[in-house]
Amino acid sequence: MVTLEHVARAAGVSRATVSRAVTGSGPVSADALRRVRAAAEALGYVADPIARALARGTGTRLVVAMTGTSDAVLDCAYTGRVLSTAARLLAPEGLGVALRRLPLHAPAAELDALARDRTVGGVVLVNTTAEELAAVPRELRGRVVSIGVGSAVVPSVDVDAAAAAAASVAHLVRSGRRRIAMVTGPEWLPCTRRPVAAFRAAVAAAGLPVRTVPGGFDAAAGAAGAEEVLARWPDTDAVLGSCDDVALGVLAVLRRHGRQVPGDVAVTGFDDAPLAEVTDLTTATHPVERITDAAVRAVLTGAPADGTLFFPSELVLRRSA
Amino acid sequence: MVTLEHVARAAGVSRATVSRAVTGSGPVSADALRRVRAAAEALGYVADPIARALARGTGTRLVVAMTGTSDAVLDCAYTGRVLSTAARLLAPEGLGVALRRLPLHAPAAELDALARDRTVGGVVLVNTTAEELAAVPRELRGRVVSIGVGSAVVPSVDVDAAAAAAASVAHLVRSGRRRIAMVTGPEWLPCTRRPVAAFRAAVAAAGLPVRTVPGGFDAAAGAAGAEEVLARWPDTDAVLGSCDDVALGVLAVLRRHGRQVPGDVAVTGFDDAPLAEVTDLTTATHPVERITDAAVRAVLTGAPADGTLFFPSELVLRRSA
DNA sequence: GTGAAAGCGCTAACAG
DNA sequence: CTGTTAGCGCTTTCAC
């Protein structure tokens, strides 16, 4: 194993100088810099992240903290996508990923524990709530980022779900649908409010009735939502699901009620999950990998909070709508 | 932050003694042990994994190494499940998870790099091949485990896919199917050979024709496999898919050919993925969480290799068969 | 600009 | 059985 010491000897300088040269902190003469770089290159030096973490007091892992009402959220496909992306990105840095669930209420204790834990280098909050953002301890600032809503101190990235909802409505209206309902996401989740508002605005602007029912993120919620839609507005000719799983639940209920899709009722989802293609579901893409990528980089670089960074979503037309 | 030093002072012993008491390594008098425990408890001491890793020369993360022909395997749902489980299990230990793909051929270089990387505490090989097992460097022994096939030095855990295949065939035969075909998993993957062998044995034992076609693990492979099955044996009345995705591909092709499911042809999958429930697919469970759990624990404890530990799979009957 | 020296918190010889 | 003594590899004051 080649250490700082070896590079220092090869370059004819002290360990301190090599450290400064390698990390870019502190002053180093152009000449020393060149020699250190050459030596490091020649020896194939790469800093040990563990020793560095111990000396700096920084952590060696990034915690993905999913907010949710139960541990079930940790097993969903979305969590898996976020984790895979983060783990892959961090692998070359010598950093790892850990997974934790944050309780929906009173998350302060958990967040404080994370802030105190010297092994955590940064935190990515997923499905963040306002209560959670308010509870982010000062010590975590600069190394926490949110996927979803953000705050003045917590930078955030998200998909442009509002645009996706608007695009879905536009497509449905264009293809002749006039009585469009939406099964929304979980009510406690702030970032689902944007697409709902966009949906309401879009149908209202088209002069159509505004129909929404509370939903969630799984097929069961979609099924329940569809039942409610059919009960309240039997003439509905299109349903937007908050995500693909919800849309599949909607499809199951429509089939049970003998409604043809897309003949009688059109259905759209959101995510473009693998099952959307298999089930021929019209849906909008959710670039989870790009979003996670941005979030991880933001944590690593300590990016300041300046509004939410939105990633575009694209409508994928298939048989269902 | 409370360190070893604090506990030592409170217990009236040296740091070394506290270390021995806490880790359980080396001799400590019953009296000292008691006092150290009390002090540690009172102060809420918890060892810093980073300092420990630096001193011991062990890593702070566990690498999940997926074998595959392309990076696409890193994005599949299965990888996500493995990663979520591992990340959750490791969180309380202060350890993280990293994700890497191992090339199908000549994996020795990658494995050597992992062995040399001081940040890696252990490795979980997924979809292991014989070539890979042979290339496991000596330095990795005792901290590497395989999900799939194992070797004399690499312990392994897997699902009992052979039993699942046999159970599926038994169910199909019981319900009157007589011309059963199987779309197998990827040919390069050794652990898929067991269920194929079990399938062949089961149909042969029932006095039925043995029909298998090479497949893979995604819907496209299932579709291609189904086309081949229909071309070679048009009278087939049941198809086993190597996994749920494959079964969905099979379903799509059957539908396209106007075959009724389960009327004309029965279809079964394997995994019991979320989409199996949504699409009413008869399938066998794949306890990925339990398997990963066992694998991670084995890496952490350095369990010796003594044959593959198999986890049971259960048939879930739904509409498709 | 540069080097010497003092740690970060823990483990592991080595004497006693 | 226990304490002392060196480190693990890197960062970071603080003099020069």
From TrEMBL, chains A, B:
It comes from the Bacteria. The keyword DNA-binding applies. Residues 2-56 form the HTH lacI-type domain. GO terms for molecular function: DNA-binding transcription factor activity; transcription cis-regulatory region binding. Keywords: DNA-binding, Transcription, Transcription regulation. InterPro entries: HTH_LacI, LacI/GalR-like_sensor, Lambda_DNA-bd_dom_sf, Peripla_BP_I. SUPFAM superfamilies: lambda repressor-like DNA-binding domains, Periplasmic binding protein-like I. This is Transcriptional regulator, LacI family. It comes from Geodermatophilus nigrescens.
